[in-house]
Amino acid sequence: MTSQDRLLQDRVAIVTGAGRGIGRAHALELARQGAKVVVNDFGVSLAGEQVDSPADEVVAEILAMGGEAVANGADVADFAQAADMVTQAVDTFGGLDILVNNAGFVRDRMLVNAGEDEWDAVIRVHLKGHFAPLRHAAAYWRLESKADRQRVARVINTSSGAGLQGSIGQTAYSAAKAGIAGMTLVAAAELGRVGVKVNAIAPVAKTRMTSGAFDADFEASLPEPEDNSPIVAWLASADCDLTGRVIEIEGGKITLEDGWRHGASRDLGRRWQAAEVGAALRDMVGEAPEPEPVYGT
């Protein structure tokens, strides 16, 4: 692939949670497409305990293919560390054009067994871990725009089918991923004026998060992490003209998610009486399509 053929030639990217799995695949694909990559990985186990970060290994792979990359060990849910990560990209590579928010872990538990600490940990790493890097990247892009240096910036957030349809045993994870979809819509609306397009993906892949969660045959049938990354590369490119969208990726299949939309309605022109509500809502439900089932039901 020549530099002229690369979608992301000389663009600067941050990929969070890029030491393993889907994030690693994103970092490698963005580098193949010519991006200079900040490879972020805090170094945690599947359950969130601190372990050695594999970010340096991914950087070595990128350098070996002739690309440019630097490792970053920030906790993306730490507001100050997320700011420093954006600063590192700007200081090292001269700017920032792409933010891929991918970091996360799971602590699956049925609702009645979920602990407060587990809820807090999952919400923190997924939801605040998307907000903090996006907040600081957005501030940088706004300043660039005010200085007449508006960048063709792109953000790719990571939601999930669990956040879009729900998933049994994953209350915290589903809530966080639904929040990320909502954050994507708002950020797209707010940041368009400074040249930023914001989208999200809902990837399906065989990763540490799926290991042991399904029977062996289903696990083997899951797509590879690398199947998601070409879509991310295009969403990160100047050619991307979409914003405020969520795209589910399952191997070779991509689906544009429809999201929450206004459905049937009734307007009495006055305050409702409690006794009137049931019949009206049942009529509206009868007019609406059946909701997609929650995963695991």
Concise description?
The protein has 297 residues and is α/β, with parallel strands linked by helices.
Q: Main beta sheet, described?
A: 8 strands, mixed
How much helix is in the residues?
40-55%
Helix tally equals 9
Report the portion of residues in β strands: 5-15%
Q: Determine Rg (CA atoms, Å).
A: 20 Å
Distance between the termini: 45 Å
Question: Which short descriptors sum up this protein?
Answer:
single chain, 297 residues, alpha/beta, 8-stranded mixed beta sheet, 14% strand, globular
Care to describe what's here?
- By secondary structure, the chain is of the alpha/beta class.
- The protein is 40% helix and 14% strand.
- It has 9 helices and 8 strands.
- The chain has helices at residues 21-32, 55-64, 79-93, 116-146, 161-164, 171-191, 216-221, 229-235, 274-287, and strands at residues 12-15, 36-40, 68-72, 98-100, 153-158, 196-204, 246-250, 253-256.
- The chain has an 8-stranded mixed sheet, sandwiched between helices.
- α1 crosses α8, α3 (79-93) packs parallel to α4 and α4 (116-146) runs parallel beside α6.
- The chain is globular.
- The chain starts with 11 loop residues before the first strand and ends in a 10-residue tail after the last helix.
